[in-house]
Amino acid sequence: MKSDEIKVELKQINLETDLENKTKKIVLVGNPNVGKSCIFNFLSGMYVDVSNFPGTTVSITKGKYKNYELYDTPGIYGVGSFNDEEKVARDIILDGDIIINVVNALNLERDLFLTLQLIEMGKKVGVILNFADEIKKRKIKIDVKKLSELLGVEIIETAAIDKQGFDKIDFLINNAKVGIQNEEVLSLLKKISIQNIPQAEALLIAEGDANISSKFNLNINSSTEREKIYINRRNRVNEFVSEVEYEDSTKGEIFNLIGRISLNPITGIPLLIVMLTLVYFFIGKFVSQEIVDFTENKIGKEFFEYHTKSFVSKYSNTEILTQVIDENENIVDEKLFIFPNGADADPKLQNEFKSLSSKKNAVSEFTFYNPYIKLFFGEFGVITMTITYLLFLLFPLVIGFYLVMAFLEDSGYLPRLATMLDRAFNKIGLNGRAVIPIMLGFGCITMANITTRLLGTEREKSIVTAILQFVIPCSAQLAVIAVLLSGVGVKPMLIFISVIGSVLIILSTVLNKLLPGESSPLLIDLPMMRFPRFNNIIKKTFYRSWGFMKEAGFWFFIGALAVGILDLTGLLKLWQDFLNPLTVNWLKLPKEASTAFVMGMVRRDFGAAGLFELKLSAMQITVAIITITLFVPCIASFVVMLKERGLKEGLIIWLGTWVTAFFIGGLVAQIII
Amino acid sequence: MDKTLDKISKGHYLKVLKLPSGDIKSQLIRLGISEGDKLKCSHKLPGGTIVVQKNRQEIAIGFDLAKKIKIHELKEK
Question: Which residues of chain B have a CB within 8 Å of the CB of A259?
Answer without folding.
Answer: 58
